[in-house]
Amino acid sequence: MRLVISREALIKPLQLVAGVVERRQTLPVLSNILLVAEGNQLSLTGTDLEVELVGRVQLDEPAEAGSVTVPARKLMDICKSLADDARIELELSGQKMMIKSGRSRFSLSTLPAHEFPNVEDSPETFELQLPQSALRRLIEQTGFSMAQQDVRYYLNGMLLEVKDGELRSVATDGHRLATSVSPVQTDVTSQQQIIVPRKGILELARLLQGGDEHVKLVIGANHIRANVGDFTFTSKLVDGKFPDYQRVIPRNGDKELLGDRQELRQVFSRIAILSNEKYRGVRLTLNDGYLQVMANNPEQEEAEETVAVDYQGGHLEIGFNVNYLLDVLSILNSDVVRFTLLDSNSSALIQGYDEPEALYVVMPMRM
After folding, report:
1. Residue 367 resides in a domain
2. Which structural domain range is residue 220 located in?
3. Predicted confidence (pLDDT) per residue in 92-125, tens digit
């Protein structure tokens, strides 16, 4: 195996593929990426057995065919350290991968290509298409609410639901919920739900560009696959039952607050400085025409600020984790944000005034 490639052509696919590889692995080969040279193409594959990413690069001149696995981090660090306009020669010599560029010489240990695992395929059940920008927006609008390392493993990912020509994304960590929806091209007639693991969602988001170019998602019994440009992304699905998110969305709120999103975000950020570092609670006191935000901490320090809002619903006091409110206000685009509330023990429904497709639910805190 031998090939010559420019650093510029290699660095982006190498970074994306190496991003899938876990630093600490039980199997040594999983710390490596698989390189396959054939004709005028080099393919790079990284996997952690849950997520697999294959990137393809066109070569200026035909390669000497071959395949091998090399340490992902070391190869990436070597390429990063070279000059931007460097030409890189990769050549397999016995059990070593020789890397030459200018006056630099590196020799990396390798493992055989046949030891590299494949993410198993499962029969295709359905497929759908939508613009890359739309899928990326769905992930951005809801991904921050995914749980991390929750014992309820089905929360450590994102629900994708196809129904009535729409794709809905839903994420929750048990304390808050985010959902958004986008039109989608599909032949699916009945409702379909899958749970994509957290890492799969984050890696897919890294791949997606912002344009109108469509991405096709192929869903199997236990995997999802997407072709994005020169990359093929595959992720196993979470085998579990996602909570009924419709029951979580409050429908009976009778108090509505409208406020300037940026102003509220700045107020919450300031007050959060003196909130309890562990619980992050802030108290909201609502009266006609204004909102008072308060926080304190175990050192007996306090913060308080009053802001004018559009609200006529009578006196209400309610507590929230300020980080959850800031996450929502940071992701919305609307200038005006709407809070729909019922009482101090009920969840708040938050929406951008002109973003009806996205809904956010935040549970209250006892203060």
Report:
1. no
2. 124-247
3. 999 999 999 999 999 999 999 999 998 777 788 8
**Residue 303 and residue 189 in one domain:** no
Q: Where do the H-state alpha helices sit in the chain? A: 7-20, 72-81, 132-142, 198-207, 245-248, 261-272, 322-331
Partnered with residue 90 across adjacent β-strands are 3, 99
- The CATH number assigned to the domain holding 301 equals 3.10.150.10
Q: Are residues 165 and 235 in the same domain?
A: yes
What is this structure's pTM?
Answer: 0.93
Q: Are 117 and 47 in contact (CB under 8 A)?
A: yes
Q: Is 40 within the bounds of a domain?
A: yes
SS3 state at 210: coil
The verdict on 236 and 305 lying in the same domain is no
Q: What are phi and psi of 186, to 5 degrees?
A: -160, 155
Q: Could you report how far apart the first and last alpha carbons of the chain are, in Å?
A: 65
Distance, CA of 294 to CA of 289 (rounded, Å) = 17
Q: What is the pLDDT of residues 205-250, one digit of tens each?
A: 999 987 889 999 999 989 999 999 899 999 999 999 999 999 999 9
